[in-house]
Specification:
The protein has 345 residues and is an alpha/beta fold. The chain is built from 15 helices and eight strands. The chain has helices at residues 4-17, 22-31, 43-56, 60-70, 78-95, 149-152, 178-186, 202-211, 229-232, 234-238, 242-252, 259-266, 273-277, 296-305, 324-339, and strands spanning 102-108, 111-118, 127-132, 155-159, 191-199, 217-223, 283-288, 309-314. An eight-stranded mixed beta sheet has the order 1-2-4-3-5-6-7-8, sandwiched between helices. The relative contact order is 0.10.
Length: 345
């Protein structure tokens, strides 16, 4: 079982970023008293009940988002599995009137992943925006961004990290290779030579490693991405929120609670100063000064070694839950500036 107080804390940024009404998510959080699988008042049960009521009244998008919250941070038993299946079912109902949202599957030697895409066109290929979240968010949470493809003047593809949602790959040091594979899958309908990544948290780490390997990636916008110290500092890892440690352990295949084994797995994931210094693309990074997941040494590493860095910082915790709207404005403002050649050079 997860620590309920941690679940409530870390779900706030997702609830606010996804525009759930405060009265709705605050009401659910008040009713949650435990995380026992299927028990009255439990995390999955309360969020799923709210989702079912919303779906019954035809409010499909908030219903889906509540189901996604019910499976947060990962599927670990029947109740969260049912919530995830409910989320996928409601999402399919929501996207039915939106033919511009299409499914893209990508097969790799170690597994496969699925994406939601919009704005793809063989006749008029547009620059590509690749979107991915972190270790706790399914791709459907960010799929509404696909509907903004025409407004952005870009093709948009949204996916999820290994072990999350439908992604059957194992999360390891080489997981960045899934990102160029996504580009290959849509290269006939998007101008992938002009690709930009909106990749938050651990997705940002993958994008930074990918950037040194693939000239098609022209810029990265990220928030709260671990970079180097996070992966090598065992003391910092032991102080991480339990939900973060448990989720990483699950995705990497390490036994739950085995912090030593997790540290061993993560030890060579750090991006080196040489790798960061070699980057010749704009990187827009939003940090939180009181981040309990990303250590201060990581933002210092970026400042010292990334030549084309635009740095933004909020006085907040991981994900900046008290500054969600400011983060959204900064994110899309940075993306458009980057695409139009106005990002840091």
């Amino acid at each position: 079982m997860n620590d309920v107080s941690e679940l409530k804390e870390f779900t706030l940024v997702h609830a606010r970023a996804l525009h759930l009404p405060p009265a709705l998510y605050e009401g659910v959080l008040e009713r949650v008293t435990n995380d026992e699988d299927g028990a009255p008042g439990s995390w999955a049960v309360e969020w799923s009940a709210t989702a079912a009521a919303l779906a019954a009244s035809g409010e499909l998008l908030p219903a889906f988002l509540c189901s996604a919250m019910a499976r947060f941070p990962f599927v670990d038993g029947p109740a969260r599995h049912a919530a995830y299946e409910q989320a996928r079912s409601v999402f399919d109902r929501w996207r039915a009137p939106h033919p511009d949202i299409e499914r893209v599957r990508v097969k790799l030697p170690g597994g496969e992943l699925a994406c939601w895409a919009g704005g793809l066109s063989a006749a008029e290929p547009k620059p590509l925006l690749l979107v991915t979240g972190g270790i706790v968010s399914v791709k459907e949470q960010w799929a509404p961004v696909v509907l903004q493809a025409a407004q952005l003047g870009m093709a948009v593809v949204v996916t999820e990290l290994p072990g999350v949602g439908e992604n059957t790959l194992v999360y390891d040091r080489e997981s960045w290779r899934m990102l160029p594979a996504v580009l290959d899958a849509v290269a006939d309908r998007a101008d992938v030579s002009r690709t930009y990544a909106l990749a938050n948290s651990f997705g940002g780490h993958l994008a930074l490693r990918w950037a040194g390997q693939d000239p098609r990636l022209c810029g990265i916008v990220t928030s709260g991405a671990p970079v180097g110290v996070f992966f090598t500092d065992g003391d910092w890892q032991r102080r991480l929120p339990r939900v973060t440690r448990d989720t990483l352990a699950r995705l990497t295949g390490v036994g739950p609670g085995d912090g030593t084994a997790l540290g061993t797995v993560l030890a060579d994931w750090a991006l080196t100063p040489q790798e960061l210094s070699a980057l010749d693309i704009p990187v827009c990074y939003s940090a939180s000064s009181r981040d309990e997941i990303v250590p201060p040494g990581d933002t210092a590493l970026l400042r010292r070694h990334v030549r084309r860095l635009s740095f933004n910082e909020f006085d907040d915790v991981h994900g900046a839950p008290a500054h969600v709207q400011e983060t959204v404005r900064w994110t899309f403002g940075s993306l458009l500036a980057m695409r139009d050649g106005a990002a840091p050079s």
